[in-house]
Amino acid sequence: MQRSLHYGVIALALLGSTVLATAQENKAPQNSADEALVKSAPEAKDAPQAPPQTTLAPQASQPGLNAAGPVLVDGKLTAAGAGTKDEPAKFSAKNDGIDNLPIMAYPLSLTDEQKRAIYQRVSEGQAPVSTITAKPSEQIPALTKLEELPSDLAVPAIADYKFLRLQDKVLLVNPRESIVVGEISK
């Protein structure tokens, strides 16, 4: 039984390799370079080969190409549609500032109306005014007493934060790390 199974597997392998070899022989060459590869070495040496096709680069017919001059001048893109956001930081003070801004210092995604509501509710409360000076992304002392946000504020973006009331602004603080994540000015 095992012997006949063994012979059957060998027969299938031979049949499969024969089918593959036949399929490769019947493959039609696509160009003269393929023909040269299919022919034997002496035939390929005598057969002329077609020169490779060359295409000319489009000259400012596509958006983003600049036929008038170099694409980069002092590190700045001169292509149509390139703005100051595409300039490297060493050529743009604005982009350098953005590059050096910690991610935690990016402003919270709050509307002006939400900011006004938060500031008004917090400043109406009995929270003490702190004298700490901190900016977003800075850590405040761990023992600083943080206040709970009023429960009636329906702003999901700040639900996990606590606040610290200053004289002219409110600092939103991540209580787990004591990091200022946002500030709302008067």
Order of the strands making up the biggest sheet:
3-4-5-6
Query: In CATH terms, what is the fold-level topology of the domain at 107-185?
Result: Nuclear Transport Factor 2, Chain: A
What portion of residues is helical? 25-40%
For the biggest sheet, the summary is: 4 strands, antiparallel
What would you report as the Rg, rounded to the nearest angstrom? 36 Å
Class computed from helices, strands and strand pairing:
alpha+beta
CATH superfamily of the domain at 107-185: inner membrane protein cigr
What series of H and E elements makes up the topology?
HHHEEHHEEEE
Envelope shape? elongated
Low-confidence stretches: none
Tally of helical segments: 5
The CATH class label of the domain at 107-185 is Alpha Beta
> Strand content of the residues, in percent?
5-15%
Give the N-to-C terminal Cα separation: 91 Å
The CATH architecture assignment of the domain at 107-185 turns out to be: Roll
The strand count comes to 6
| Overall pLDDT score | 75
How does this structure look, described?
By secondary structure, the chain is an alpha+beta fold. Among the domains are: 35 residues, no CATH class; 79 residues, inner membrane protein cigr (Nuclear Transport Factor 2, Chain: A), CATH 3.10.450.160. 31% of the residues lie in helices and 12% in strands. It contains five helices and six strands. Strands 3-4-5-6 form a four-stranded antiparallel sheet. It has a two-stranded antiparallel sheet with strand order 1-2. Strand 5 and strand 6 form a beta hairpin. The longest helix is centred in the first third of the chain and has 24 residues. The protein is elongated, with a radius of gyration of 36 Å.
